[in-house]
Amino acid sequence: MQSAVVGVVRAASRYRWTVCALLFFATVINYMDRQILGLLAPVLQHDIGWSQVQYGRIVIAFSAFYAIGLLGFGRIVDWLGTRVSYALAMLIWSVAAMLHAMVGSVAGFAVVRALLGIGEGGNFPAAIKTTAEWFPRRERALATGIFNSGANIGAVFAPAIIPPIALAFGWRAAFVIIGAIGIVWLAVWFAIYRSRDPRSLDDDLGEAQDEVEALDAANVNARAPGWGVLIRKRQTWAFLIGKFLTDPVWWFYLFWLPKWLNESRGMDMQHIGLPLVCIYAMTTVGSIGGGWLSSALLRAGWSVNAARKTAMFICACLVLPIAFVSYADNLWVAVAIVGLAAAAHQGWSANLFTTASDLFPKRALGAVVGIGGMAGSIGGVLFSEVIGQVLQRTGHYWVLFAIGALAYLLAFAIMHVLTPRMTPAKLDA
After folding, report:
1. Where residue 8 falls among pLDDT bands split at 50, 70, 90?
2. Which regions form coiled coils (predicted)?
C-alpha cells in the first residue's frame, strides 16, 4: 500500500512539470502572436500609411478587447475548467492571428487585433488556475515564473524568425505561419493534458493545507463567487491595482521597443532583431529568477507575506534605471538598461500572479485573475493613447520611460497598504 502511494506521488510530481511545459509553450505562442505587429510595424506603416496615433489606436483595439477577454475567460475558466477553456482560447487567438493576413487597412487591423485580444485573454486566467491546481504553494511562484518566461522566449524567437519570414515571403505569410503554430499546440494539449481535481493535490504531494486550501476544503461544493462579491474585497483591489499600474509598462516594451529602436537608434528591420533578442533573453532570467527567489524564501521558512513582498520590492527597485535610458549614447548600454527593467518586470509579474492564489481559493482564482488582467488592459489602453499623443507631439520617449520607472514602487506601496499581511479573502460559501 505504501509503495502504491509513493508511486502516485512520484507520478503527480513528474506530470505537474509536463503541465508546466504545456503552459510555457502556450505562453510562447501567445506572445509571438501578440508581438508580430510591433515587429512588422515599420513595414506596415510604409505599406498602409498609418500615423503614430492610428498605430496607437490599433494597439488600443487589442488592449480593450484583451480586457474583455480576460474578464470573460476568467469566469469561463472557473465554469468549464482549464482543459476546455484553454483550448477555446488558443483556437480563437490562433485563427485571429492568421486573419491578419487578410486585411490591409487601419480599420481591418483594428478588428483582427480585437479578436486576437479576446482569445489571448484566456491564457493567463487558465494558466494561473492550472498552476494552482497542480502545484503546492511552495512551488507556485517558480512554476509561474517558468511558464511566464514563455512570454520572454516568444519575444526572443519573434524578432529572430519573423523579420526573415516577412522578408522572404511577405508580411502576410508571417502572420499565417506564426498563427498556425497554435493549432499544433492545440492538438498536443488535447492529446496529453488531463484535468485534475485540485482537492487531491495535498494528498498526492504531501503538502500540508494552508489557510487558502482550508477555505477550499470547507466550501468544496460552493459555487464560484460572482464579480460583485470579489470586487468588494481589499485583496481583489490589491491585485487589480498591481496589474493596472504595471502591465501597461510591459505592453510599452512589447509594442513600442521596435519603433523606439527604429526611430531613436536608426535601426532597420534587418538589424533590429539582435538588440530585441538580447532584451528578451534577459527577461527570461528575470521571470524564472523572480519566481525562484520567493519560492526559495518560503522554503527557508519566511512567511508568504515576507517572501512575496521582498521579491517584488527588489524587482521594483531594479526597474528604476530605465528612467535614464534616453541619456545613454551607446546602443548596448541602452539595451542593457531596458533589458534589466524588462527582466525586473517579469520577476515582478511572476510574484504578482502568484499573490492571486495566495489571497483567494481556487474556485475564485480564474475570476480574480480575469479582473486583475482587465484592469491591466485598461491601463494599457490609457497608456497607449498617452504614448501615441506624446510621440506625435514631441517625438521623445524619455517621459514614457520615466513613467515606467516609477510605476512599480507606486504599485508596491498601494498593494502593501491594502494587504499588509496578505490575509486570504474570506468568501461567502
Report:
1. very low
2. none
How far apart CA 401 and CA 322 sit, in angstroms, is 6
Query: Rounded mean pLDDT of 223-228?
Result: 76
Query: Max Cα separation, the chain?
Result: 73
Residue 217 confidence class, pLDDT cut points 50, 70, 90: very low
Nearest alpha carbon to residue 399 among 409, 408, 389: 389
Going from N- to C-terminal start, the domains of the chain cover 16-194+209-418
Dihedral sign for Cα 346, 352, 353, 358, please: positive
Q: Which three cell numbers stand for residue 274?
A: 539582435
The mean of the pLDDT values for the chain is 85
Any residues with CB less than 8 A from the CB of 198 and at least 6 apart, and which? 132, 133, 216, 362
pLDDT in tens, 156-202: 788 778 888 888 888 899 999 999 999 999 999 999 998 665 444 44
What integer pLDDT is reported at residue 203 of this predicted model?
44
pTM for the full predicted model: 0.77
Cell readout for 327 is: 541619456
SS3 state of residue 252: helix
| Residue 3 pLDDT exceeds 50 | no
Share of residues in the chain with pLDDT > 90 (%): 42
Amino acid, single-letter form, for residue 204: D
| 3-state SS class at 415 | helix
Taking 90 as the threshold, does the pLDDT of residue 95 lie above it?
A: yes
- The span from the CA of 55 to the CA of 38, in Å, is 10
245, 411 Cβ separation under 8 angstroms: yes
> First and final CA of the chain: distance in angstroms?
36
225: helix, strand or coil: coil
Residue type, position 28, single letter:
V
Tell me the three cell numbers of residue 106. Answer: 487601419
The yes-or-no verdict on residue 224 having pLDDT over 80 is no
Provide the 8-state DSSP code for 92: H
From CA 103, how far away is CA 373, in angstroms rounded? Answer: 28
Instruction: Report CA Rg, the chain.
Output: 21
Report H helices in 81-105.
82-99
- Spelled out in words, what is the top-level CATH class assigned to the domain 16-194+209-418? mainly alpha
